[in-house]
Amino acid sequence: MMAYPHYSKRVWHSLDGIWDFRFLGEEATLEGLDLGGVNYDDQLCVPGVFDVTPKYAGRRGLALYRRNVDASAGRLKLRFGGIGLWARVFWDGKAVGTLDLPYLGMELEFRCDRGGEHTLVVAIDNRFDFKRTPLFSQYYDFYAYGGFYRGVELHELPACSLERVRVATRDLSKGIVNLDIELSGAVHARVDFTVAFDRQAPACYGGEVHDGHVRLSLPVPDFRLWSPESPHLHTVTVALADDAITERFGIRTVSVDGDRICVNGTPRKLLGYCRHEAHPEFGPVQPLPLLIEDMQYLKDLGCNYIRGSHYPQDQRFLDLCDQFGMIFWEESLGWGNQVEHVTDPGFCEAQLRQTRLMIQNSFNHPCVIMWGFMNEGPSHRPEATALYDSLIGLVRREDPSRLVTFATNHPGDELHFGKVDVISLNAYPGWYAQDREQVRPVGEVVPFFDAFIRSLDERGLGGKPFIISEFGAGAIRGWRDRFKSHWSEEFQAEMLGTICRYVMERPRVAGIALWHFADAQTYTSAHALMRPRTINDKGTLDEYRRPKLAYDQVRRAFRGEA
Ligand code: ADA
What we know:
The protein contains eight helices and 35 strands. It has 562 residues and is an alpha+beta fold. Strand 32, helix 7 and strand 33 (509-514) form a beta-alpha-beta unit. Helix 1 (288-300) packs parallel to helix 2 (315-324), helix 4 (345-362) packs parallel to helix 5 (385-398) and helix 7 (489-505) runs parallel beside helix 8. Alpha-D-galactopyranuronic acid (ADA) is lined by residues 141, 310, 375-376, 409, 426, 470, 515, 536, 538.
């Protein structure tokens, strides 16, 4: 399965497969390196991360990936689905670009003077370096892998090419959509093109180009709405003489009505999970069967909602969410950042750049109803206001058709609740318990959230949707315990059962994303003393997708069974 958009007229090559590989080690740098003289002594997979393979597990440093590619002369574009942590790309020995936004789909365009066989080298560095990769720090509670998280494509571009067509619902009752066609290359002041919905006969249009964009509104013939129960999808194909793009979209609206979140005007309670893209054998690389497997479990659990924590997710997974009617919160990369980060110009620039690109990349997914950023940032500190305001403003400008939120862990002194559409709180009462002497502090859960809801009323925020963006408890799969103590499957089951019933019974709670779907690799430093097996084991399933005891509790609650 190839993620949308599809380009049917141009020549493009999938570069996925086995590449030459050389790990240059912890001390190596690119400066002064003779790329042509490198002895590639190994072979590895793309997509794939080297530091999860048995030979290089846990290594940090500079690594080179190389392969040969046949391509014509002219404009070329490399499309990277996502890399980590940082990469420089060389075409026939010349640097053609840098990738510094982990997890995010990024493209590099360059000119190539001759046709024939070329050498592509991608130098990937997975060392932490705040100046170079400010978005990922060592203390984040998920493993920072090195390599290609997702696939790579090479596109041969015609003189004037189609980048994307962004589709937004304009009139739900008439099925009218706004098309924003983005062009690049030799773009004239006017352009003629055809548009075809759902592979019907194309119709001719012409339009003036402003800033590389042509915008028009069209009715979709025989349209049907997208909804979680009936996730109907349409396609639109825009074609020029030498290029064509097919995008997939859904016709639906997202809004808030008082404290409810609505899709197509109908209130929805969001029931689901935070999901990391992680697997013990492949790291962040997600084989298709795994995506389907996760989707089957999520559906079986009665979920209608996923929070893509804590970075932009694989476009193929978002495509599946579109198809399966799974509502989605897409968020840019950030985790527990502090004042020193949000006041750093490089960090702020990278946050804004990645959030904008994330919205542009994922714009056409009807499943995405909310954009988020900066998980558990310092949003209770005035020093953070400039960045939070800029991010909120940017999201609203880029996409006024969706909701804005961010996950806070500052229930009492949050400064930015008033500015977002949805109040999202990460909280772990009963797990990171207030009363450390209590043996099983499950009793803290309900009073904590009741008190938070009361505090929202007192702050004049009673009319705004409130969702629990994280809640969880750790359980080591197989650890069954008559004391139902911490880390036991029994304790986790009781905790998750309690919160799910609470959310189902309280209309004031517009949704929950339990922390988290499946266990995932995290710290290998001393932080791991809080993470048995160096895994964040608050998953309802373990890292191999084996359900724990809590599975049935959640399933029964989300399905409304006794
Ligand atoms: C935070 C964080 C998650 C995870 C969780 C936990 O809320 O957002 O990524 O680290 O805590 O397991 O404690």
